[in-house]
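Example record used in the benchmark description.
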Amino acid sequence: MARDAPSIDAYGDGGFRLSGVRHEGSVLIVQDQAQAWPVSGAADLTPESLSAILAVGSRDVEFLLLGMGAANALPPRDVREALSRAGIGLEFMDTPTAARMYNVLTAEGRRLAAALIAI
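Model output (structure tokens):
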């Protein structure tokens, strides 16, 4: 299956440039589709905020690449447990690292979702 994942061209100033298009705020990329994500920090991170990923499930998403903002932080326990129950792996790191890793992993054809808190 051909992938049409957006590339992350830039990040910062409160948003991202995905495949040449500016997106204000945090973004969620699921099944190669980017959408606005109303999470501005770790305190907003809940299983409900990841419902689009949980709904897709492990059949289409190997793992979630979670950008936690300017600094890495441990995601809340209920988020980690919800992903585990869904059979979806979790890799979390600061958003700049996650943005770079996303581009590498999608180029390799990996089936991942990305949830990136804007910085």
